[in-house]
Amino acid sequence: xxxxxxxxxxxxxxxxxxxxxxxxxxxxxxxxxxxxxxxxxxxxxxxxxxxxxxxxxxxxxxxxxxxxxxxxxxxxxxxxxxxxxxxxxxxxxxxxxxxxxxxxxxxxxxxxxxxxxxxxxxxxxxxxxxxxxxxxxxxxxxxxxxxxxxxxxxxxxxxxxxxxxxxxxxxxxxxxxxxxxxxxxxxxxxxxxxxxxxxxxxxxxx
Length: 206
Fold this sequence. Notes:
Layout: H1 4-28, H2 34-41, H3 45-51, H4 55-79, H5 86-113, H6 121-143, H7 153-167, H8 171-185
Helix pairs in contact: 1-2, 1-4, 4-5, 4-6, 5-6, 5-7, 5-8, 7-8
Domain HTH tetR-type: 11-70
DNA-binding region: 33-52
Protein name: Transcriptional regulator, TetR family
């Protein structure tokens, strides 16, 4: 069909814009000029705005991509049922994700706040996806006696994500703080086979 090459080009341009925007936002912050993203991606401003009419729509797409990656990391560990400490390993990825995307998340929340009649359903959905996808890791840790039985999943997740906020961009500090948190979460007598620390940034799902 005649429109198939055009659709293929559109998909390629969108993927290229997302990849470029992710890097630009990481390097220059969420307020980076959008025309810089278009130039680096090798497309026109018109192409950028055709795919992403507003800054918020682009930020949302970039952040959603990182949520996909974080959930994929959790699913991989859920499927690997032999790893007792998969939950603690995933915590390191969560902290790295939160540090890398903090500016994007804060900008999105601020953008939604400017339009109070629009519910933050998208942001809430992302958080719920993470909570539900990784919940089996928490259940496994409980069943295998790796984590204190009195803990609640929502509280544990909130505590771990708070590490990134407290440490800011300092990965070394984040690693130390996460180690302290994990030590407190572990069930008495449960020891870690290796230190828990932030990983490299989550890989976007393809």
